[in-house]
């Protein structure tokens, strides 16, 4: 899953980004509203964390601009604890959730997980396909009751496919959502990781749809 953090406080931005990366996400970052708005309009993020008190362009204006362009990326806004009016403005502009400053990193991570699940139509923190279970809270993958050790790339690939069960996901889409903007993207590497993932899982839940991409059937 690929996320964008738009926060002008460099220390806080670094803290949020580091926590998200440790949790297995790929993260791009911006430090003002203008840069954040541009990235949100041009890159395919799975979720965006957006501070409202941004320089150049404020967060509410950025969010309004995205929604007017019909950009539906889920957004969590960051607000000061005593500015309840900011929360109202944020929700009216199209925010999906909010976190008040100061906050515990664990709360932000939990809200990100919940937002990604809801966006993909999953109610539970555990996604199940046949004998494969992916626990979004712990980042664990279990097959037939046995934990499977995956690399970060393999986990991100499986997580994205399982979040989007029942839909064909192209190699290009996977490349865009599994790597940040600075990565030298090559969709051929996706085939390598799919092959490794199939071997480690030991069950055939990832279908190759020739010429289109990959599919995990929800009824597998």
Automatic annotation (TrEMBL):
<dbReference type="InterPro" id="IPR001789">
    <property type="entry name" value="Sig_transdc_resp-reg_receiver"/>
</dbReference>
<dbReference type="Pfam" id="PF00486">
    <property type="entry name" value="Trans_reg_C"/>
</dbReference>
<dbReference type="Pfam" id="PF00072">
    <property type="entry name" value="Response_reg"/>
</dbReference>
<feature type="modified residue" description="4-aspartylphosphate">
    <location>
        <position position="51"/>
    </location>
</feature>
<dbReference type="InterPro" id="IPR011006">
    <property type="entry name" value="CheY-like_superfamily"/>
</dbReference>
<protein>
    <submittedName>
        <fullName>Response regulator transcription factor</fullName>
    </submittedName>
</protein>
<dbReference type="InterPro" id="IPR016032">
    <property type="entry name" value="Sig_transdc_resp-reg_C-effctor"/>
</dbReference>
<dbReference type="InterPro" id="IPR036388">
    <property type="entry name" value="WH-like_DNA-bd_sf"/>
</dbReference>
<feature type="domain" description="Response regulatory">
    <location>
        <begin position="2"/>
        <end position="116"/>
    </location>
</feature>
<dbReference type="InterPro" id="IPR001867">
    <property type="entry name" value="OmpR/PhoB-type_DNA-bd"/>
</dbReference>
<feature type="domain" description="OmpR/PhoB-type">
    <location>
        <begin position="124"/>
        <end position="218"/>
    </location>
</feature>
<feature type="DNA-binding region" description="OmpR/PhoB-type">
    <location>
        <begin position="124"/>
        <end position="218"/>
    </location>
</feature>
<keyword id="KW-0238">DNA-binding</keyword>
<keyword id="KW-0597">Phosphoprotein</keyword>
<dbReference type="InterPro" id="IPR039420">
    <property type="entry name" value="WalR-like"/>
</dbReference>
């Amino acid at each position: 899953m690929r996320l964008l953090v738009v926060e002008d406080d460099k220390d806080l931005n670094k803290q949020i980004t580091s926590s998200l990366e440790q949790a297995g996400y790929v993260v791009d970052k911006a430090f003002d509203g203008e840069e954040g708005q541009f990235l949100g309009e041009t890159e395919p993020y799975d979720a965006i964390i957006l501070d409202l008190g941004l320089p150049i362009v404020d967060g509410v204006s950025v969010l309004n601009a995205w929604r007017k362009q019909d950009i539906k990326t889920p957004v969590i806004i960051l607000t000061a604890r005593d500015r309840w009016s900011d929360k109202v403005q944020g929700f009216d502009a199209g925010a999906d959730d909010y976190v008040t400053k100061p906050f515990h990193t664990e709360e932000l991570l939990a809200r990100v997980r919940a937002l990604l699940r809801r966006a993909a139509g999953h109610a539970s923190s555990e996604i199940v396909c046949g004998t494969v279970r992916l626990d979004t809270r712990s980042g664990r993958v279990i097959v037939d009751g046995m934990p499977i050790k995956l690399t970060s790339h393999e986990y991100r690939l499986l997580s994205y496919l399982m979040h989007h069960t029942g839909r064909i996901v192209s190699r290009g889409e996977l490349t865009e959502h599994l790597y940040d903007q600075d990565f030298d993207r090559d969709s051929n590497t996706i085939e390598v990781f799919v092959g490794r993932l199939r071997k480690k899982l030991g069950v055939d839940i990832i279908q190759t749809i020739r010429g289109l991409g990959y599919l995990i059937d929800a009824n597998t």
